[in-house]
Amino acid sequence: MRLGHSSSRAKFPRHMSQETRSESILRFDLHILFILLVMLITLIRYILLIWIILSWSTYFAYFACFGLVLPFLPYWMVSRGLDAQEAALILSSAFISKVFFGLGVGILADATGHKKRWILLLSVFTFLGFAVLMTVCHTQQLI
């Protein structure tokens, strides 16, 4: 065989039997399969790592913005015409409803065993309620 000459078939010594050649090819194929499997696992690990970093950074950014706005929200509401008690009632009702509805829905979902169904149903109700609120209320007056 000349240097630089490529052959499409693997060269085996003549004294090897056909079974030995088949076992050698099988070992070679399993080796390539193992390398591809390791590469796939590494790729999945990097994708999961990127997903974790993005989800944590999104979580941090959401609550950082919420924490920056929340202390000034009552003052903004008062400047828009609400008195201090109304602003306090609006802000506290959101947190109180989160506690009671979260607890109640959690107990209900555990009792029925349909957690995904309850999450989907309440997400649809939240979307519909927000859509109705946005169509009924004139939000431009608050801005």
Concise description?
The protein has 143 residues and is mainly alpha-helical. The chain has helices at 18-69, 73-79, 84-112, 115-136.
Model description:
The protein is an all-alpha fold and 143 residues long. Helix content is 77%, strand content 0%. The chain is built from 4 helices and no strands. It has helices at 18-69, 73-79, 84-112, 115-136. It is elongated. The relative contact order is 0.03. The mean pLDDT is 79.
Strands, helices and their partners?
Elements: H1 18-69, H2 73-79, H3 84-112, H4 115-136
Helix pairs in contact: 2-3
N-to-C SSE string, H for helix and E for strand: HHHH
β-sheet strand percentage = under 5%
Residues in helices, as a percent range: over 70%
Q: Would you count the extended β strands for me? A: 0
Query: Which ranges are low-confidence, i.e. pLDDT below 50, for 5 or more consecutive residues?
Result: none
How many helical elements? 4
Mean pLDDT: 79
Summary keywords:
mainly alpha, 77% helix
